[in-house]
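Entry:
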Amino acid sequence: MPTGMNPSNNRKSEVKVLLLVILTGSTLMSFLYILNWRGDETPAFLTKISTSTGKRVPQPLDSSTLSMIRADSLGVFRALPTDFLPGYRNFCWHGNESQLHCLPGAYLAGISKCGSTDFYRKLVWHHQIMSSGPKEHHFWTLRRLEKMREYSFEDYLDRLKSEEFTESSLRIDGSPSLIWNLHGWESRFPEADKAPYSNADLIYSVTPGAKIMAIVRDPVKRLYSDYLYFGKERENRTAHSFSLEVVKEVKRFSACLESRSLRSCCYDSDNSERVRLHVGIYICYIRDWKERFGSNLLVLPMEGYSSSHVPHLMEVYRFLELPLPREVDLQAYIDSAPLQNTRNTWDKNKGDMREETAVLLQDFYGKYNRELAEYLDDSRFLYDYNSTQWREN
């Protein structure tokens, strides 16, 4: 034995080497196990593709969640490539006969009746954001599911195509139900006691580098606007019927919370489709998206955007990593563009909600607003309620 070498230290070194080999082998086998669920190809949704380098970064979605998402969307994952093409703002690949397919590089994921239509129309003024085609597709929330599908994944890809498409252009899917709508998951997973995955998990599994935006408003006002706007029989809806249905839904949701978690109740498919109380519990859904997308999620208050368009749009362009336009040009466009999807005369004739209804809803939503403001560290989401704030202008 060489002079000065301690036999005990030598044995310790051998043990360390052996442990390192075992741990390395175990990690490798675990990684190969995850990959093996799809075969011998590396799924694109297990890797984050840099638009500049194509570099892969393994993602933290566990294999069981990935398996459930894939089983729920076989048509989607069969069409996805092993890798996305580098150099594109969207998530692109060459399909059959070298046809170029692209998924959106960004989503305006919500929320209904929070000014998303006006926000989207002004956002796509930017020369690198594609403005052709519909704002809303609702593919991920409704149409990918066999029982509710109106068109296939291939149809969705076709609707995303545009003659204005270039490598530097950005496509935004503006479906405002994406952030919250998991309706019907119980029938697809009857043995599960909670939603097995969120829409955040779904989008992340397909395009993990996507940018996610959400615009929200005072949930009390949002709910009344939503109630008057949606539904085949909406002409029969009044402030009185709204009051009656709100009381009923608040009681039902509160009863749910006595035995189940907030997240479980938010994603419950038995939630009312007439008074969508759960949609305004923003913290419930934004937490899922924030935990999955981190800094790639941007949440904006409608109230701030409505009173100051240019600063908020400039903030979004920075978030999307787009060249910034001249503020004077953006302001000129906004001054010339009409507001989209505003409250019409028929809606205004319905009047404001009753004061007692507003107070009930303020009490219901108040704690969730505080949770959201604390979670995002942004006091703009507190909605400092008073006796008249619930009235529409």
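The chain has a mean pLDDT of 83.
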